[in-house]
Every structure is written in structure tokens, then in C-alpha cells.
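Help needed: design a sequence for this.
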């Protein structure tokens, strides 16, 4: 018998501008908090974890700066494969 941990991902904030979609996501079962960026014009996508001591909204508003700091590749697929659940749910 296989046991699976349910992954409840909640979208805490979201914004779109000029084909760039940025989402602040939180996963309940392990407390992971990250920002996912999808650039539909360039076809790029990446995710940046929010580390201890960082302000989540700072990462949300400046994901490219944080990605550069941590060495995230803009062409890497987003970390969240599961659909997000809206905060109103």
C-alpha cells in the first residue's frame, strides 16, 4: 500500500504584467513558501524559495533579483506542478 501526503498548495498573491505572471505560493504539509514566475512571451519559468528571515512580499515583488542572488535558472520549470488553491477556498 502506498501512502501519499496530500499537497494543499495555496496561492497567497498573484500579479500579471506584460505577459509575466508572478505567484506567491504556500504548501500546507511542509510549510514551503515560494514565488513562481512564468514569462509567457519569452517562454521562461522559474521558482524561488522564500528562505528564513526573508520577507515573502519582497521576494514576490522582486523575484528576478532573488533568483539572481540564489542562482535560479530562468529557464527551469516551476517548482509547483500541482494547481494552486485560491485563498478564498
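Sure. Designed sequence:
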Amino acid at each position: 500500500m502506498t501512502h501519499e501526503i496530500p499537497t494543499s498548495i495555496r496561492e497567497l498573491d498573484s500579479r500579471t504584467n506584460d505577459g509575466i505572471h508572478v505567484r506567491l505560493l504556500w504548501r500546507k504539509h511542509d510549510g514551503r513558501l515560494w514565488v513562481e514566475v512564468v514569462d509567457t512571451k519569452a517562454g521562461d519559468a522559474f521558482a524561488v524559495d522564500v528562505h528564513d528571515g526573508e520577507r515573502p512580499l519582497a521576494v514576490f515583488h522582486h523575484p528576478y533579483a532573488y533568483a539572481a542572488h540564489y542562482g535560479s535558472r530562468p529557464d527551469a520549470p516551476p517548482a509547483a506542478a500541482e494547481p494552486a488553491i485560491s485563498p478564498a477556498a
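The radius of gyration is 13 Å.
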